[in-house]
């Protein structure tokens, strides 16, 4: 699979305890992204955070949270990400989704591309 140099980064900010179809939401998002042949997905666990409710979730020993913040990141062509958005929307009961344009310098083995000039 080839990812164009100018791509889109999707980030879904969710909680570790969020669920969909009987399983962890983050797993369901990654598996659906794979089924839709997106370039790849990564789940990052945060040590501390808060969201819409302003409730702080932390991994500190004295306040061990069962709902640590997670970020699912997916980078692909803009059209592939746009096709995934309605699917993601149907899966997420809440949370935050962001998109940003990114430059892909390397995907898989090979030579690192030269970055495009910023204007």
How would you explain this protein's 3D organization?
The chain has 119 residues and is of the alpha+beta class. The protein has a single domain (6-103), classed as Alpha-Beta Plaits. 21% of the residues lie in helices and 33% in strands. It contains 2 helices and 8 strands; from the N terminus they run E-E-E-H-E-E-E-E-H-E. The protein has helices spanning 25-35, 78-91; strands at 6-15, 19-20, 23-24, 41-45, 48-49, 57-58, 69-76, 96-103. A 4-stranded antiparallel β-sheet has the order 4-7-1-8. A two-stranded antiparallel sheet has the order 2-3. Strands 5-6 form a two-stranded antiparallel ribbon. Helix 1 (25-35) runs antiparallel to helix 2 (78-91).
Spell out the key features of this protein:
119 residues, 2 helices, alpha+beta, 33% strand, four-stranded antiparallel beta sheet, N-reg_PII/ATP_PRibTrfase_C, 8 strands, two-stranded antiparallel ribbon, Alpha-Beta Plaits, N-reg_PII-like_a/b
């Amino acid at each position: 699979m080839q990812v164009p140099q100018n791509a889109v980064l999707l980030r879904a900010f969710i909680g570790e305890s969020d669920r969909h179809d009987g399983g962890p939401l983050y797993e369901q998002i990654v598996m659906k992204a794979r089924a839709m042949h997106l370039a790849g997905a990564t789940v990052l666990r945060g040590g501390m955070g808060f969201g819409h409710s302003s409730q702080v979730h932390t991994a500190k020993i004295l306040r061990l949270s069962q709902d640590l913040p997670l970020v699912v990141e997916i980078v692909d062509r803009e059209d592939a990400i746009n096709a995934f958005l309605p699917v993601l929307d149907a899966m997420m009961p809440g949370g935050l989704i962001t998109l940003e344009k990114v430059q892909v310098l390397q995907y898989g083995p090979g030579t690192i591309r030269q970055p495009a000039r910023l204007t």
